[in-house]
Amino acid sequence: MYGDFQIEEITGLGGVKALSPEWDNLFDLCVEATPFQSPRWLVPWCAHLGAGDPYVIALRINGALAGIAPFMLKGDELVFMGTGVSDYLDILMKPGLERAGAFAVIERLAARQELWRRCDLQELKPGSALLSTGLPSGIRSRIMEREPCLYLELPPTIEEFAAMHRVNRRAGSARARARLERSGFLTIETADKARLEGFIDSFFTLHAKRWASLGLPGVLKGPEIMSFHTEAARGLLGSGMLRLYRMRYMGSDMAALYCLFRGKRVYAYLSGFDPALSKLSPGTHILKHAAEDSIRSGARVLDFLRGGEGYKYAWRPKEERNLNMVLERA
Questions:
Q1: CA 9 to CA 19: how far, in whole Å?
Q2: CB of 157 within 8 A of CB of 329?
Q3: N or C: where does the chain have the smaller number of CB atoms within 10 Å of the terminal CB?
Q4: Cα–Cα–Cα angle for 216, 217, 218, rounded to 5 degrees
Q5: pLDDT single digits (tens) 116-165
Q6: Chain-wide mean pLDDT for the chain?
Q7: Mean pLDDT confidence for 95-108
Q8: Torsion of Cα atoms, 101 then 328 then 42 then 96, to 10°
Q9: Among residues 145, 140, 179, 165, which one has the least CA distance to residue 326?
């Protein structure tokens, strides 16, 4: 017992998968949690990218799951599940129990120091309860800033968004986009269950083309990362959190944009486009379409996620920084 919590430790991929239905129900209650904390994202990560041993601390009250701290042990280092491919990470606690849950998790880690030498907890939002919880004796922490996370506040209407866009010179020409759309040769579609596999293939191909034109491999190189995204996309689509867009011009794939959607926030995760059509600003056009589609769906924030790339600043976004919390034995 840790306060009002009963603590359960789950290890192994089989145990993580068995916990998934309860985890999914808890995630539904946590309206501020991001898609990167969903089992539909993290369980595929464990299966395809998690080079280590899953170690999950489950917090229960009267037997019901009230919180979960999903970790991966890599040798003697403990990290969050999803590290590397996820832009926001944290423990998941039933609303109202965040501070108590964070303290219980840290206490449990302190009691299990034989498992780890260092905990490297990346991509915590500034408001994470882990950052402000007290530390038991024998544990010290270091907190460091990470790269910027940029986001754009969306207006209630597409007309207001269009007015904002007109003064954004680097965001492309509204007239050019209108000409493309009137031509009848430009189409933008959103993946559904029947066509998901084809959309994913287009996304992988366009991402690889765009980065190959720069002499770089991109971040989707290798069968493991592709298998992860394929499995995660199926689960995320089934829960309504995936928005995978494909833009075609004259029957050929032009651009793809992989977005995650939850609550009032849409996350522009990864994209790709055909560099042979770069003069038509495909990346800008498909991002504008995603923003407009999100406004129609009630979103109020377009999150560009990690990284300070120039095209993001062209939209005049606001900026926050995630934090990295490192726990070590004192």
A1: 11
A2: no
A3: N
A4: 100
A5: 999 999 999 999 999 999 999 889 999 999 999 999 999 999 999 988 87
A6: 93
A7: 96
A8: 10
A9: 140
The model carries a pTM of 0.94
The mean pLDDT value for 305-311 works out to 93
- Which structure tokens are listed for 159? 């007309």
Architecture of domain 155-299: 3-Layer(aba) Sandwich (3.40)
Residue 148 to residue 266: CA distance in whole angstroms:
17
The CATH fold of domain 6-146+322-329: Aminopeptidase (3.40.630)
Domains 6-146+322-329 and 155-299 share a fold: yes
The structural domains of the chain, with segments of one domain joined by +, span: 6-146+322-329, 155-299
What's the per-residue H, E or C state across the chain?
Answer: CECCEEEEEEEHHHHHHHHHHHHHHHHHHCCCCCHHHCHHHHHHHHHHCCCCEEEEEEEEECCEEEEEEEEEEECCEEEECCCCCCCCCCCEECCCCHHHHHHHHHHHHHHCCCCCCEEEEEEECCCCHHHHCCCCCCEEEEEEEEEEEEEEECCCCHHHHHHHHHCCHHHCCHHHHHHHHHHCCEEEEECCHHHHHHHHHHHHHHHHHHHHCCCCCCCCCCHHHHHHHHHHHHHHHHCCCEEEEEEEECCEEEEEEEEEEECCEEEEEEEEECHHHHHHCHHHHHHHHHHHHHHHCCCCEEEEEECCCHHHHCCCCEEEEEEEEEEEEC
Q: Is the separation of the CB atoms in 228 and 85 below 8 Å?
A: yes
State the Cα–Cα distance between residues 329 and 110, nearest whole angstrom.
9
- The yes-or-no verdict on residue 3 having pLDDT over 90 is no
pLDDT for the residue 180: 67
